[in-house]
Amino acid sequence: MMAMTAPMPMYMVALLAVGDLSLPAIGSGLSRRPSDARSAIGCRAGVGSGGGTLDDVDWDIVITVVAAVLLVVAAVGVVYPVLPGSPVAIATFLLWAAVVGSVASWVTGVIAALVCVAGWSASAVFTGRRLKQLEVPGWSIAVAVVASIAGLVFIPWVGIFVGFAAGLLVSELIRHGDARTALHSSVETLKAMGLGVLLEFLLLCAAVSVWWGGVIVHFATD
Hints:
The protein has 222 residues and is mainly α.
């Protein structure tokens, strides 16, 4: 005797019918959402041909800006001797040429570094020769340097110059024993050192001009 199967309730038939119609639509909608989201995010972030990412950054520009800042520090350091001057400029020229790597950067970087070396050397030779003519001993300069450090501590910014001049005058007064002679020797020494600083600064400016020419040529032909 065959078993009789109970008829399916009508609400079950209705649910199955609704499910057959809605589940594929829901599934297809869910399958499209991730790609739509990625597309929207990509459009907002600018990814693609018009987008900007870290890979699109021109590192030559970044390195050049950093080099320009270091050259400003070097120029200030020539006048204000607490900061390194010509050595920073020479290293900046050569490192910029090495990092950028173009022919223009190497040619102008090396020339600028050589001009800066010439200024640094000429300043030292000129000042040393003049101090030798004035017969200013090394210990007078050492006393002036110590006094300049003390002046920098007690008088911010300008104390280094005031301290150096005062220390030099005191040391020359001890050496000569005469105020007029000590004052004359101190003034002539300060003139010699000032002219040496001016010479170094002018040649540093010339070196920076050569470097700027290299920057222009590099980016114009890159």
